[in-house]
User: What shape does this take?
Amino acid sequence: MKIGITCYPTYGGSGVVATELGIELADRGHQVHFITSSQPFRLTGREANIHFHEVSVSTYPLFEYPPYDLALATRMAEVAEFYSLDLLHVHYAIPHSVSALLARQMLAARGRTLPFITTLHGTDITLVGLDRSYLPITRFAIEQSDGVTAISNHLRDHTREAFEVTSEIEVIHNFVNCDVYVRKPDLVAAMRPQFATSATATEPQERLLVHLSNFRPVKRVQDVIEVFARVARALPARLMLIGDGPDRSAAEQLALHHNVQDRIHFLGKQDNVNELLPLADLMLMPSQMESFGLAALEAMACSVPAIATRVGGVPELIDDQANGLLFDVGDIESMSTAAITLLRDEPRLKAMSVAARKTAQDRFCASRIIPHYESYYNRVIARTQPTTSR
Ligand code: GMT
Assistant: This one.
């Protein structure tokens, strides 16, 4: 198939999923065309079967807001026609599905069919899409899509309720490449001492916790610091904070307040998180909302269980007490106590780490999820084919 993919190319869950999907599809022999504002950050630009088309937005003194959506629609239509794309797959409804709708109409006027699929990732529905200025057009574009997928049952149900959308929504969960996201003992032995000390004759090893996000308020990074401060008071521990965003300086201030700044590695945005995650013993994901929780899945694939909040689609990934632990949003005391207890109980921590890896492998590996996308593409293409008259 020849597939056009549009996403936000910067750091963020939807962009990661879209890029990894493109990489996996290209690996399986499909021609993948990324139509984005810049090259998605996980691409090198040299992958076979992957093509990148930059959307450039011309500015003009009259434009207070340069119309990216229109430039994107134009580029989508051009690329689709030039490369005879079979379909467009847009990630994150706003504004990508609206641009795809325009591109489809532009090509229809020229007698060509271009179906498009919208994948809903979360904040496009739970936050941004509910803003009155975006809701009607987002709902319209979802209803006009030739196919709609959501990354969890929770997001599908929420979209139906909140948007009163009646169209069929296919659930295709987030996925992870289990060969890339895996704990390699040699690599861990070599890299972990950079972040946490090993056991000595007199001192136990330091426990290593990790948090990975875009540091937006929805991630509650301050709760991560609060929990870690309590853990660090109870046992020798360090924290890797991977990512950056609006709440980073608040997190730094809170770390200073609790005097744990020297125990925290503020690593900023990192490309190879698959090398960092396996170094940790435990992930903290205390989000206000997660439609799925890709960061926790990536950690679990690396045999790192998560302490997370019981929100959105997280319970579809984390089975409380089996492969991780779930708490109410903001319940810092319970999360801290649970983390301390678990980190002191090596056999239970080990069992949870094995269960976490098994969940990722059995249910969310790319090798299981990508065929689901392929068959959905085939269904959408088949039902949007023009009927030939005799
Ligand atoms: O929250 C983020 O990290 C960004 C956001 C996005 O769309 O870029 O992530 C959403 O999509 C991810 C991939 O499908 C999901 O795993 C996240 O749970 C979801 N975030 C929220 O729902 C808050």
In short: Residues 12-15, 17, 92, 121-123, 151, 174, 214, 218, 289-294, 312 surround GMT (CB under 6 Å). The two ends are 27 Å apart (CA to CA). The mean pLDDT is 95. The first helix runs from residue 13 to 27.
